Structure formats: structure tokens, C-alpha cells
Amino acid sequence: MLCGCIPVVSAVAAMPDIVGSDGYVLQSKNALELKSILDRIPNEHSVEKMTAVRKRIESSYTEEGRSIKLLETIAKA
């Protein structure tokens, strides 16, 4: 996402929250649903959407914030 890629994620853990409205969420293990999502992307894809995806990650998941979370996780182990 930081590189402007449009994310397609499964509905597992925090993935839907991370991509928000800037990506696509596969609700179940279903090849037809995945194909439907992948078929929509070229029609809905735009430079503006790529920019929005990057901005979402930059503002929500800063390098400092990720470092803090990583150190907290290591300290708990």
C-alpha cells in the first residue's frame, strides 16, 4: 500500500481495518468472489485511489509507531 498498490485482503484479523475503504476485502474463501473483486479493480483503479492508499498508510502507520509496536511485542515475548 505504501507503494500505491491497491490491496486485496481476506477478512482476517485487522486486515479490513488496515485497508479501510481504499482496498478490497475478500469475505470468504471463494474463488468467484475473488475473481469478481479482481475484475472490478481495473475499472475502479485511478491515480487518486493509489494516492489515497499511500496517504492512509503514511498517516496511520508511521515508522515511529511501527517501531514502538515492534519493541512492545518483543518485550512481551
Descriptive notes:
The chain is mainly alpha-helical. Helices cover 61% and strands 8% of the residues. It has four helices and two strands; from the N terminus they run βαβααα. The protein has helices at 15-19, 31-44, 47-60, 63-76, and strands at residues 8-10, 24-26. Strands 1-2 form a two-stranded parallel sheet. Helix 1 links the parallel strand 1 (8-10) and strand 2. The radius of gyration is 15 Å and the shape is flat.
Keywords:
2 strands, 77 residues, two-stranded parallel sheet, 61% helix, mainly alpha
How many individual helices?
A: 4
The proportion of strand residues reads 5-15%
Question: How would you state the average pLDDT, rounded?
Answer: 91
Tell me the distance between the termini.
28 Å
The backbone outline, from C-alpha atoms, is: flat
Tell me the Rg in angstroms.
Answer: 15 Å
- Helix content, binned percent: 55-70%
What is the subunit arrangement here?
A: single chain
Series of secondary-structure elements, N-terminal to C-terminal: EHEHHH
Number of strands: 2
Neighbour order of strands in the largest sheet: 1-2
Task: Give a topology summary.
Layout: E1 8-10, H1 15-19, E2 24-26, H2 31-44, H3 47-60, H4 63-76
Parallel strand pairs: 1-2
Give a quick summary of the entry.
61% of the residues lie in helices and 8% in strands. With 77 residues, the protein is mainly α.
